[in-house]
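User: Predict the complex.
Assistant: Input components as received:
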Amino acid sequence: MLTELGKRTRLAARGLARLSTTQKNTALHHLADALVADQKAILTANASDVESAKAAGLAPAMIDRLMLNEARLADIAHNVRLVADLPDPVGEIFEESIQPNGLHIRKQRVPLGVLGVIYEARPNVTIDVASIAIKSGNGAILRGGSETLNTNRAMIAVLQKALASSDVSADVIQFIDSPDRALVLELLHLRDYVDMIIPRGGAGLHEFCRENSLIPVITGGIGICHLFVDDTADQDAALKIIHNAKTQRPSVCNALDTILVHQQVAKEFLPRVVEHLTPAGVTFRAEPKAAALLQHETVFPAGEKDFDTEWLSLVLGIKVVSGLDEAIDHIAAHSTAHSDGILTRTDAHAQRFIAEVDSAAVYVNASTRFTDGTELGLGAEVAVSTQRLHARGPMALRELTTYKWVIVGDNHVRA
Amino acid sequence: MLTELGKRTRLAARGLARLSTTQKNTALHHLADALVADQKAILTANASDVESAKAAGLAPAMIDRLMLNEARLADIAHNVRLVADLPDPVGEIFEESIQPNGLHIRKQRVPLGVLGVIYEARPNVTIDVASIAIKSGNGAILRGGSETLNTNRAMIAVLQKALASSDVSADVIQFIDSPDRALVLELLHLRDYVDMIIPRGGAGLHEFCRENSLIPVITGGIGICHLFVDDTADQDAALKIIHNAKTQRPSVCNALDTILVHQQVAKEFLPRVVEHLTPAGVTFRAEPKAAALLQHETVFPAGEKDFDTEWLSLVLGIKVVSGLDEAIDHIAAHSTAHSDGILTRTDAHAQRFIAEVDSAAVYVNASTRFTDGTELGLGAEVAVSTQRLHARGPMALRELTTYKWVIVGDNHVRA
């Protein structure tokens, strides 16, 4: 069933790959305008999704994610304009050289082709991904959560109408307009027409894609994140950083999950952590050595799997370690290689931590919350990769491109 | 059965990732020395493989590939020294920046981890891959063809002895010492311990890996390669380039498969092609328009699938096209996106060809035979990727690395 849709997207993406930056930006501004002009249709569709979600008893947090209003829609439209303002990676030339035989060689950035994006109940993803795909010259086949089917349908209608008055073919962004779960599997097998699968959701979705896809999958977005508090850490600063990393937005992948505290300072520092974070609603899971230093109603003994849990909530694991080596070993054993940091004033320890902790983002004296495309200067974000191939950490426009080798000779033959 | 082997390789690779360039190079020179010093053991083992291959009735070309002698072994050892001389990509810093908030950001190259390499009856691959893996800081689990089991076993023994007297753990390079085919499938599922699968062999092996692997696979090495002869091409030069691309080494993936000739020059040029290449043993498969221009005993009508065949032999497809557009369309429909070129003196056509043909290597006025790590300045080659993710075209040391983001703050928290 998806073959026809795949063919159409592939064909449209080939055309998109040749458009100028101005043509793509104009289409994006049309889209931003249309999202505001046609907000009524989108908000009406969204209201019906929200009503169904309430009737189905979805958790309030889920319903909040699902819900759009004028302000949120204006934000989404604003983000489309920000993507239009970003530099276009397509056509960029790099690693240019002339070989000893006179052959001119360069690499030139080209779009990846067609993205397959599978996501859950966040309607903003539909437009975020569409705008990033268009700017990077890629087609996209979107498969959103069934809870947002009406909202997505309305948004896609607005998007396709907006593209129809631009040089970008409306076929570039396709939407799988059915809640049938078998279509997810079909998308994962559509390898003649899709070049990369991006799952955006929980660990289960990522695992399903990895197990079943015949197309390369960008896995990521799962962060069991650590901060190691060294004996020389500035403790006041460490409290602020831990507070920020744990509480500023606990439901996201770069939020802190575990602190590892040097035994020399644990007795002094740990009670301060509990005192400082408890008012924000944080509860703690402490391994025995840490628990022995803490008597507080918010501190619980850590269970067997607690150090392998991505909390996504106001829970913080605490462990006392003998020093840098044990901290590095703990991280190697329990991290998902997303974002891990050291808080220290010992430069040699910072250097060893950077060298030996092999995570997508390694921090020295900063909150883990900066692992984000916008914070790291990419201007946008389509995923955070925790796999090792292609791109690692935040992915935006350039990470949705590949390159071709361009070789220009003067009638060269190989000897 | 491979789990233990995987764990050992992963652990050893972690150690290797921290070694200095000098430590890795010293190990490589030990290996090169040992290959020469212990050549007797290797050549004796190889002689027994060759004998079995003859008894089994393998084709002479296969037996030639399988066969080692003193000179070939010396070449293999020499290549190990060349890899030692290449720049080390590990630790390279790039895209360094300071964000407006003062956060220092850089990307730093790190090894991919552990490679799984599945190859056929070429014993040189064992040492080539081992040396490239060591230099790029990666572990490797090798699975060679069963025809070379004795040779590989002897080479690996020499390699592990050589590493034992170096700082590189002998566990870094593991060899699956069994012809059991079920172990290939097990390797493709060993995702906790292997980061990238590199198949080196025919289309069947690549397809098997793509279908069955839970680990990212670098597919490639299959080249249906085209040259388009434009109406303004320098015909004398074009003959030399076509001769080189077709006959210099017809059994490899960057050899020419099809020429597309502009109708304006076909009548004059095609008979010259046949005349020039027939003495080299080339036979031709011509579509009707081309066949109508050619009467020669080496010219046969093209069959239905001939333009979708990678010849790997002295066969050349010929098609007359109406011009650049038809040439680009034919390539889009039949190329494996490996290496395709244009021969022209019309700069606008060269530019359109570069922009619109989306192959790993796009050529202007040169033989397709240059798609090779050494020819393109990488100094070595572990595979030629025709997929779009991670790396495209020749892959060598840098293509076996990934990067980490290193973020150094002054107690930064996210606002």
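Chain A has two domains: 2-219+387-407, 225-370.
Let me know if you want any component modeled separately.
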